[in-house]
Amino acid sequence: MEQRKIRWGILGCAGIAKRAVIPGTKQSETGEVAAIASRDESKAVQTAKELDIPVAYGSYEALLNDDSIDAIYIPLPNHLHKEWTIKAAEAGKHVLCEKPIGLNAAEAEEMKAACDKAGVKLAEAFMHRHHPRYAMMKEVIKSGEIGQIRGIHGAFTFNSSQNHGNVRFNEFMGGGSLYDVGVYPISAARFLLEQEPEAATVHAFFSPEHDNVDMMASGLLEFPGGVALTFDCGMWAAGRNVLEVLGTEGRIELPCAYVTRLNEEDHFFVTVKGERREVKVPYVNQYSLQADNFGRSILEGTPQLFDGSDAILNMKVIDACLKSAKERIRVVI
């Protein structure tokens, strides 16, 4: 007997949904994309036609009222995440919400509480942590091959500064590089170290041309034991997408650390005592893996790799980073 699949509804026609999450979910073992909604019905119909989605709705409420939908993916602008996560939970839908899960940790706590009350699952859409490379890197770290960890450095930058209508450049809507790409190296370091940072110091460039959101930020997160994450993130800089873990005896380099090269293998490199080796990782679709982990948690009750509690902890770090950048101070978390 064929196992039932999770029927996904997509709340909005954002680029990340069309480009990556919808195709990845359609390729997953546990899910199917059953419906999509937009406040502009013609946009929903056009997107449904382009991506072969059976049903298109002209309002978000209509999608939430569809009893055949099990789970909702929310790629809306950041300031709408809390509202529509809570509404989806109240409609009995499980929720995968795009990062950052909210505008602050308090919002994330409200969202988790609403999902817990409704008996539905909540996860933040950090696809990169589902890629097997990260578990493999953690195994290298735990093996002791590169010695004791002394630090991690991550960078995620791109340049879209000329696109002035972008929601990322709207302060009210939760714009800025820390929200958009800084969250990636921060979540990666928390995962690899299996610890929470104790303090944050961040310096940022707030651009008057872009509604005073942080278009570039450079930060230091203090982890226990004298270990630090140094990171930079930006939306007005040349493109970078890398992570490095430095140990006393060697280091790990991860090219294409957060956004992978579609349909290509994404390897990482380990260097010990001057000898550099490539660790080969077969091609996988990390968006499919994300959908499957969430789907199996619903269908089979298997544990979520990252649940709402993890999202709250990540937002506490982002809160501290933003406070540090705006007030030019070190912030204890």
UniProtKB/TrEMBL annotation:
Assigned keywords, A-Z: Oxidoreductase
Domain Gfo/Idh/MocA-like oxidoreductase N-terminal: 6-124
GFO/IDH/MocA-like oxidoreductase domain sequence ranges: 134-253
GO molecular function: nucleotide binding; oxidoreductase activity
Stored Pfam families: GFO_IDH_MocA, GFO_IDH_MocA_C3
Family of the protein in this entry: Belongs to the Gfo/Idh/MocA family.
PANTHER family the record matches: OXIDOREDUCTASES, TRANS-1,2-DIHYDROBENZENE-1,2-DIOL DEHYDROGENASE
Protein name, per record: Gfo/Idh/MocA family oxidoreductase
